[in-house]
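Give me the fold.
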Amino acid sequence: MRLGDCHNFHDFRALARQRLPGPIFNYIDGGADDEVTLRQNTQSFNRVDLVPNILRGVADVDLGVTVMGERLAVPFYLSPTALQRLFHPEGERATAAAAARLGTMFGVSSLGTVAMGDLARKHPGVPQVYQFYFHKDRGLNRAMLQSAKECGIKTMMLTVDSITGGNRERDLRTGFAIPFRLTLGGMAQFAIKPAWALRYLMNEKFSLPQLDAHVDMKGSTISIGRYFTEMLDPAMDWDDVAAMVADWGGTFCLKGVMSVEDARRAADIGCKGIVLSNHGGRQLDGSRTAFDQLDEVVQAVGDRLDVMIDGGIQRGTHVLKALSLGAKAVGLGRAYLFPLAAAGQAGIDRAMDLMIAELTRDMRLMGAASVADLGRSSLRFR
């Protein structure tokens, strides 16, 4: 399979699987426990039908939205995700460049593999979000936030659904760990993917620059689960977050909110946005999907802050359904990670161009010239 043969999410996933060593593919692809929530994230969109209008004069379609004060040319953004240079040497550089080309927002993770400051300097006009994990070491938290301020980052996105590691059994079986290192035992798993191994060895040394300046890993490897369990603080509470919102002093967003009660509290402490998310089905298996929670959360707090969702979005119609229920935008994860793994920025560009083509076509078929033309009347629940 070649990049030009990819026409949808499943094609990009197949190409990524073809090019990645098994442990790395499974890190992207997998979820927690029995992966019920992972599957439900996409299936939830199938429980709602679109109701199109006709003869609305939609020769021109405007996909633009405003999210937390930022104007985006498209109603989706590239969610912050970890370890991207493991998937392709271009890593976050490709993601940032693709976002700049699209005119949309992108995020950089605390576990990102390119320094957020480098990306901010390279793409100064592109909305960049810093996705932050709350560590047990309060001094570390303050230092990392200060680093983000000094880089000119305007939007903080605190992940609140990962105070401890999810049970990701695929990673347990493969021994996936960070910082990733090829050992003699591990080489056997990668021998059947020599192109990936060659790229990995020939490119710059793998690092976690957001963490490296503050945490001495002492040359050891640590599993993803151990990082969450040992370094992050399960005692984090609303007082901690309120203090962070005040200290940050800029746009603050909580990622991983699911309940109406928590959405209201986020608004009460001054958050400008929330992302309804179950972490891509990678944390609490059996939890409700973001799309299924969207309607009641928007009705409760949609006039107080911007509500976004992520999880399971693979098609333009999925985006339209979320927008129709009041989401200001949707975050993409695997939908750009598989294309990144398949072909770097060229892969992301092709996948996002296909998404824009789908959205434009689907908006016309819905009789909607802009996102404002979509609403609950555009949907019927089965």
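The chain is about 45% helix and 15% strand.
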